Structure formats: C-alpha cells, structure tokens
Amino acid sequence: MRMSRVLIRPEFYTYADYYSWPDSFRGELIDGRFYDMTPSPSPVHQQIAGNLFAQMLAFFRGKPCRVFIAPFDVRLPKAGEQDGDERDVVQPDITVACNPQKLDERGCRGAPDWIIEVLSPSTHEKDTTLKRDLYERSGVALYWMVSPRERSVSVLRLASGRYAAPETLEGTGTRAVAEYPGLYVDWDWVFE
8-30: per-residue pLDDT in tens? Predict the structure, then answer.
C-alpha cells in the first residue's frame, strides 16, 4: 500500500504554483502543502466513482446543478485570497456545483454544493480528516465518503457551519438523496 506523499517547502504553495506545473504532476494543495496523487486510483475505485457519476449525470442533465468527475480542480479560497493565491485546491472524485458563477475554465472557485470522495487505502486518512475539515470550514453543504471495503457511505451535512454527526448508510438497494428530490442512487449498481 502506497501512502499519499506530502511535499513541503519553507513557505506554502498557491494555486498559481499548482497551475504552472505539468499535467503529469497530479496532486492537491491543502493549507499550501502539496499532496501527491500518483499513481492513479484502482479499477475498483474508478468503477465506483464512474457508476455514481453516471447516475448523477443523468439526473442533473438539464438542471441548474452541474456534476463533474475527477480530475476537476476545486479551489477553496480563504477570506481575502485573490484568484491564484488559493492554498487549498482539491480534486474530489465527484463534485456538484449549483452556482454557475463559481465555475470557470479552470474548474470551480468556491465551495461546491456536494462533494463525494471514494475512499482508498492511500487517501483514506486525508479524505476523512484533512479534506473533511477543509470542506467543513469552506462551506461544502454535503460531503459523502464512500467506502468500497465496507460497502457503505458516510453522509455529512453542514448545519450552522459544522458537520453534524455522520449518517452511515449501507450500500445496498436504491436510496433517495434527500437534498435533491427525485435523485435516487442504486447502490447495488455502484458496488457491482
């Protein structure tokens, strides 16, 4: 099992640094630290993300919200950070953004409405701690952590600026997504 590497220099990296790197240099910035995202995710990870994305893409077609699959840059600026100065840039497995003003040719700038991460051994700790905290303080209203090993999903909802205790759902059958009336996820398909 390969763990995510963090590259540190005396100061921090910004989105301007990140954007200047070659496309083959895949990673994320959290608090200005670079986290390497190579090698690519496993086939199981990709199948789960793809099956979720396919269902969501069909639902959101023709609606104001847009759904994106990684790689897709989400820049989460802190107060006062200008475009390019962001120290938090992530590539969630799936991103749903309902405010078109947050979308540009480089991705999403500002908190999207919903982020889904498919957990893997190399990113589990980062997804469940660093990114969870980042999404909470950035105002991501809905955060799902999908566990292939447990065949489950932990649902975190923002309430008064904090994530409430996670709701853990078994990944079987078809379940409605309360925040998006009419959206149902077929979890048997997701984990097939």
Answer: 555 689 999 888 888 777 889 99
Classify domain 41-190 at the CATH superfamily level: tt1808, chain A (3.90.1570.10)
Domains of the chain, by residue range, sit at: 41-190
**3-state SS assignment for residue 48:** helix
**Residue holding tokens 């199981």?**
44
Annotate 135-148 with b (16+ C-beta within 10 A) or e (fewer): bbebebbbbbbbbb
C-alpha distance from residue 111 to each of 7, 64, 107, 117, 151 (Å): 25, 16, 11, 15, 27
Q: What is the DSSP string of 157-175?
A: EEETTEEPSPEEEES-SEE
User: Amino acid identity of 132?
Assistant: R
Rounded CA separation 161/183 (Å): 25
Helix%, strand%, coil% for the chain, nearest 5: 25, 30, 45
Residue 125 gets which letter from DSSP?
H
Query: Which residues, in sequence order, are CB contacts of 1 under 8 Å at separation 6+?
Result: 121, 122
pTM value?
A: 0.92
